[in-house]
UniProtKB/TrEMBL annotation, chain A:
<protein>
    <submittedName>
        <fullName>Uncharacterized protein</fullName>
    </submittedName>
</protein>
UniProtKB/TrEMBL annotation, chain B:
<protein>
    <submittedName>
        <fullName>Uncharacterized protein</fullName>
    </submittedName>
</protein>
């Protein structure tokens, strides 16, 4: 296979792959596989390693399907109804895979990367330094946004958890006083236990 | 008379002098010598043999050479053991750094038959035994030797022996000792082989010549040709790269037309690794089998042309200036550790650098290339896979350098200087700080009820382990919708951020290339 063909094959692979994100770190390949196998047959699953030092980062995985059409269908399905994998109620999200998500991608044939060291007296040097600072600023911004997003997620999760705990508590309490409640209802001739 | 046997894979091969016919039907032809891949080998030469996946080549002595009726070429090899292979039997014995032990006795591991093609080169071994039968080597001989031996390992009794018996594997001991003149291997350079040189091999067929006579004749001939003797030493030095103590002083003078061989010899040395050596101990006695198995692949392993060393290198100093590309190639000769493992080590050693502001479509190899051209340093790089909510215009890569100083230098240079990549991307670097997060056990957004009474509830467990599409008439559906809302909001936030960043970048880049 020459470089061009390899590249084309890779592009094809990118098209039939979807990136599933918002996955729990407990989700393993077999779990993900079975989760999606009920819709489309899954060819391969690859988790994207995460080296950022943020806590509570959801995981992402690349799921390769048989056909680009299947990939589209899966994307539609996941966006339409909330698919929950390995836990409730946070649904997973899916997006089309991009080249940057793959670890082993073929080199674009014929691409030659020109590099040059700019001397400090180069007229472009100043602007290049500015670009550098801008890029650094952007990285910082992105990392801040990610942090905000994670905090928001934490908040929502906590809120849900609290609601659940409260509801559970309420039901437990109702259960525990069921006998007394029935007797009181009889006494006042009321119907509280309609179930 | 030199017979040219059918060669495969373009490796040059010739038979040398014939010996007797053998085998049950007298259809096996024995030989005294042969020419393979640029070197004449004779009976009782010490040779390196390659085993696939082995760090160090095996060392052995050729004690029989023959061709089967099916034209397969075989050699019988009497083995030398490395001390690392005999760790369990050495006790506290003092061992010279380049000492080997010859296999004696009866049993597995003494000698076995290998395809001739498994031979990877000659090896210069000197016997330093004080035995009367052993012609004492000169100091120079010992200096020049790749290995020395004086003791033996009995493969039957699994014991070390200080003396060498009269016969080993049916071979008289005198062939094991240094021969009268010198045991230095004779290497015939290419430019000689078609000319006058192979006189020794064109004397016509000398069938049934007694062994000893043959040996004497060999050495007489060596003397007749002083040119060869000069070449001898040089040729040996080419093979000596294996021995770490030697330097590359003579490297340049050896036959330049055999770079392949040298590259090959460099190979095993580099990966001497304690663990591997230990496993070798247990394997060593079962070697008969493993060698057979491995050797079948040997040839294909040797053939791919490793990039040759620069032929004009004269000194060790020059050697250090081999283009870094070569260093990278060398490192690929060995099985690489898993990337994560390497990241961890690199992080500990401070050799890990995070490059940013790369084009996300670059491949790891391209990043390595950029570093090589930009800094003249070899490295191994890996693009970081972008997750789902990325900033699509910027790629990152981890780069592992060989030394901490290099990494520091690169970071410093990129900080003060400016390396411009295409599309107005100045390269940015920081020390990498990957986080190998401990396995999280909880996940924000997956609810659980903390009630010990529910532990054994079947339904709860099932719900966690499986997946489902939530239906709109459930409670979880409402919660899921809240998540969806949050997800959409985050997505929008990223989109806006990326849009703004790209606009800023565009504006600034425009000033970079004023038209």
């Amino acid at each position: 296979m020459d470089a061009g063909e390899e590249c084309a094959a890779f592009q094809e692979k990118v098209r039939r792959t979807v990136c599933i994100s918002d996955l729990s770190p407990l989700v393993t390949e077999p779990i993900l596989r079975t989760a999606l196998d009920q819709f489309m047959s899954v060819k391969s699953v690859e988790f994207i390693p995460n080296y950022t030092n943020m806590k509570n980062m959801p995981r992402c995985a690349l799921v390769e399907l048989e056909d680009p059409e299947h990939a589209k269908l899966i994307l539609e399905l996941i966006s339409e109804c909330p698919l929950m994998i390995g836990g409730m109620p946070r649904p997973v999200t899916a997006c089309p895979a991009t080249v940057g998500m793959f670890a082993d991608r073929p080199q674009k044939p014929g691409r030659r990367i020109e590099i040059q060291w700019l001397e400090p007296d180069d007229p472009r040097f100043e602007n290049a330094q500015k670009l550098k600072r801008l890029a650094q600023k952007h990285t910082a911004e992105a990392s801040f946004l990610l942090q905000c997003q994670l905090i928001e997620e934490q908040k929502l999760a906590k809120q849900h958890q609290d609601v659940l705990a409260a509801n559970y508590d309420k039901h437990q309490k109702i259960d525990s006083i069921k006998g007394a409640a029935r007797r009181l209802a009889q006494y006042y001739d009321m119907n509280v236990m309609d179930d | 008379m030199v017979e040219t046997a059918p060669t495969d894979s373009n490796i040059e091969f010739k038979w040398g002098e014939k010996r007797s016919l053998g085998g049950r039907r007298r259809d096996v032809q024995f030989y005294n010598s042969f020419f393979y891949d640029g070197i004449w080998y004779s009976l009782y030469d010490s040779v390196y043999l390659y085993g696939e996946g082995e760090n160090e080549p095996y060392v052995g002595k050729v004690i029989k050479i023959w061709e089967n009726p099916d034209k397969s070429r075989k050699v019988k090899i009497l083995w030398f053991f490395r001390p690392s292979e005999l760790e369990n039997y050495l006790g506290g014995m003092t061992i010279l750094p380049n000492e080997l032990f010859i296999a004696v006795g009866e049993g597995i591991g003494l000698a076995n038959v290998n395809p001739l093609e498994a031979i990877a080169g000659k090896c210069n071994i000197v016997c330093i035994s004080k035995d009367k039968r052993n012609p004492q080597p000169s100091n120079e001989d010992v200096e020049m030797a790749d290995f020395v031996f004086s003791r033996a390992f009995d493969v039957g009794e699994l014991k070390l022996k200080d003396t060498i018996d009269d016969k080993i594997a049916g071979l008289e001991a005198k062939y094991l000792f240094n021969s009268v003149k010198s045991d230095v291997d004779k290497v015939i350079p290419f430019d000689k082989k078609d000319g006058k040189d192979p006189a020794s091999h064109s004397d016509g067929p000398i069938p049934l010549m007694p062994k000893s006579a043959h040996i004497v004749q060999e050495h007489v001939k060596v003397n007749e040709e002083p040119v060869d003797i000069m070449h001898e030493n040089k040729g040996i030095s080419a093979e000596v790269i294996l021995d770490g103590k030697r330097n590359f002083g003579n490297e340049g003078s050896c036959d330049d037309r055999r770079p392949l061989k040298r590259a090959k010899f460099g190979k095993p040395k580099l990966s001497k690794d304690v663990d591997e050596v230990k496993t070798a101990t247990s394997e060593s006695l079962a070697r008969d089998k493993s060698v057979q198995r491995k050797i079948s692949n040997t040839k294909s392993q040797r053939l791919p042309c490793e990039p040759p060393f620069n032929n004009d290198e004269k000194t060790r100093h020059d050697l250090a200036k081999i283009p870094p590309r070569l260093e990278i190639d060398k490192s690929k000769w060995f099985k690489e550790l898993p990337w994560e493992e390497r990241l961890r080590t690199a992080l500990e050693q401070g050799t890990l650098v995070l490059l940013q502001n790369l084009d996300p479509s670059y491949t790891s190899a391209e990043v390595e290339d950029i570093v090589r051209r930009g800094f003249d340093e070899g490295c191994s790089a890996k693009m970081i896979q972008q997750a789902a909510s990325p900033v699509p215009h910027s790629g990152k890569a981890f780069v592992i350098f060989k030394r901490r100083e290099t990494a520091e230098e690169v970071v410093r240079k990129l900080d003060t200087g400016c390396l411009l990549l295409p599309n107005g991307r100045p390269l940015i670097s920081t020390f990498g700080n990957p986080c190998f997060g401990k396995k999280q056990l909880t996940f924000a957004g997956h609810l659980s009820i903390n009630d010990p009474r529910l532990r054994l509830n079947h339904e709860t467990r099932e719900a966690v382990a499986t997946s489902h599409c939530s239906q709109p008439n459930t409670l979880e559906y409402d919660l899921a919708m809240e998540w969806r809302l949050l997800q959409q909001r985050s997505k929008l936030a990223w989109k806006m951020l990326v849009k703004r960043q790209e606009r800023e970048l565009r504006q600034l880049r425009a000033t970079l290339n004023p038209k």
